[in-house]
Design a protein that fits this description.
Elements: E1 4-7, E2 10-12, E3 18-24, E4 33-39, E5 46-51, E6 58-60, E7 68-73, E8 78-83, E9 92-102, E10 105-110, E11 114-118
Parallel strand pairs: 2-11
Antiparallel strand pairs: 1-3, 3-8, 4-5, 4-9, 5-6, 7-8, 9-10, 9-11
Length: 120
């Protein structure tokens, strides 16, 4: 059974940093694009950052460019989100997502989420 388990969330002051991790129990992890989404209270879930299966391509939401960095370790089936210079508007539940589109179909998995709260 596929599982994505996020960790690293917590309470941090504005300007601080956090590093989120997502451990994936996917045998073919290196064939999946990995993403981080977040959902703030009363808002829709939004894409924060995405990294290609081999890690050579990344995309970021405009609001986090220059502050967040997504990376992956295919040997250890883990994806990371380094978040620097955090702002109150970064508060929300952060979800890990794995996506693969192949001839056999679309395969997508979500983690349970980890809470990030930016507050003084």
């Amino acid at each position: 059974q596929v599982q994505l388990v996020e960790s690293g969330g917590g309470l941090v002051q504005p300007g601080g940093s956090l590093r989120l991790s997502c451990a994936a129990s996917i045998a073919t992890f290196s064939s999946y694009a990995m993403s981080w989404y977040r959902q703030a209270p009363g808002k829709e879930r939004e894409l924060v950052a995405r990294i290609s299966s081999a890690g050579g391509s990344t995309n970021y939401a405009e609001s986090v460019k220059g502050r967040f960095t997504i990376s992956r370790d295919n040997a250890n089936h883990t994806v990371y989100l380094q978040m620097n210079n955090l702002k109150s508007e970064d508060t929300g539940v952060y979800y890990c997502n794995a996506l693969k589109t192949a001839w056999a179909g679309r395969f997508e998995y979500w983690g349970q989420g980890t809470q990030v709260t930016v507050s003084s």
